[in-house]
């Protein structure tokens, strides 16, 4: 009996990472490209009060670092790389982000409405 319970507990723990990844796939998703320090689009409009996923693609020839101090998110990507960040529900407003490797040109914002 104890052996079965232990196996069931292990099976549940093994499934946890899968359920988290699956949940991220179900989120409203927004695409953000960065090409050598220039974001496209510069302004992402997202729904307020909903958890979202932002897919980040480095389409340039230089490394980038997506960063938002307000959102406490940071993601460095090599040329051709991609990744994502999950943003918890936002209050209506504007949240700045930037490319830490290209401060002069790499500025953008997320607008939650």
Strand content: 35-45%
Number of domains: 1
The name of the CATH topology is Immunoglobulin-like
The name of the CATH superfamily reads Cupredoxins -  blue copper proteins
Helix content: 10-25%
| Major beta-sheet overview | 5 strands, mixed
Order of helices and strands: HEEEEEEEEE
What would CATH call the architecture?
Sandwich
Distance between the termini: 53 Å
**Tally of alpha and pi helices:** 1
Shape: globular
Specify the structural class: alpha+beta
Which properties best describe this structure?
5-stranded mixed beta sheet, 21% helix, alpha+beta, Immunoglobulin-like, globular, 4-stranded mixed beta sheet, 113 residues
Short description:
The chain has one helix spanning 2-25; strands spanning 29-35, 38-40, 43-46, 52-58, 64-68, 73-77, 82-87, 93-99, 107-112. With 113 residues, it is of the alpha+beta class. It has a single domain (27-112), classed as Sandwich (Immunoglobulin-like).
Task: Write up what this structure looks like.
The chain has one helix spanning 2-25; strands at 29-35, 38-40, 43-46, 52-58, 64-68, 73-77, 82-87, 93-99, 107-112. It is α+β, with helices and mostly antiparallel strands. It has one domain: Immunoglobulin-like, CATH 2.60.40.420. The strands form 2 sheets. The chain has a 5-stranded mixed beta sheet with strand order 3-9-8-5-6, with no helix packed on it. It has a 4-stranded mixed beta sheet with strand order 2-1-4-7, with no helix packed on it. The model has no long low-confidence stretch (mean pLDDT 87).
